[in-house]
Design a protein that fits this description.
Elements lengths: L2 E3 L2 H9 L10 E2 L5 H8 L13 E5 L3 E7 L12 E8 L3 E6 L7 E6 L4 E5 L15 E2 L8 H4 L2
Parallel strand pairs: 6-9
Antiparallel strand pairs: 1-3, 2-8, 3-4, 4-5, 6-7, 7-8
């Protein structure tokens, strides 16, 4: 099973232009935590402002990863390169929490180290994204350790 969504636009906005209706931090656990690594990877280091590479989240039965998809065509006219920007074993993800109560498509992803990161799934099919994760929580469910996702 593979599912792909582009969460980068929301997280960039969350870091740069926090909306009043969205209190709290976009992630918990520090930059060296698993959530911090995910948050850093949502914004590629090399960027072409004229033609930015979309960041796509992919969930398989074994991995959670971000891929950078180049929009630039090669000299031969073929599609541009795709590279993995970040990846972890899906067993490192302990839960995903639907936060559509805040904004439709918002989710928090929790990791084994106790960290979590907010992401926004947009585009066609975003509502099916959470079903790709092994443990799904609604906004009404208690988080396994309430301190992790407290807002």
């Amino acid at each position: 099973m593979t599912a792909s969504w582009n969460p980068v636009e929301w997280l960039v906005e969350a870091f740069t232009e926090r909306e009043k209706k969205r209190p709290g931090k976009p992630f918990h656990g520090g930059w060296n935590s698993m959530a911090g690594h995910l948050a850093r990877s949502l914004v590629p280091r090399t960027r072409n402002p004229a033609n930015p590479a979309p960041v796509v989240m992919q969930v398989t039965n074994r991995r959670l990863q971000l891929a950078y998809v180049s929009r630039a065509r090669s000299f031969t006219g073929g599609p541009g390169p795709v590279e993995v920007g970040w990846s972890t074993d899906l067993r490192n993800v302990t839960w995903i929490r639907d936060r559509s109560d805040v904004v439709g498509g918002d989710h928090e992803i929790g990791f084994v180290d106790g960290s979590w990161c907010s992401v926004h799934f947009g585009g066609h099919g975003w509502s099916r994204m959470a079903s790709a994760f092994p443990v799904r929580l609604s906004h009404l469910d208690q988080v396994p350790n309430p301190g992790w996702a407290a807002r």
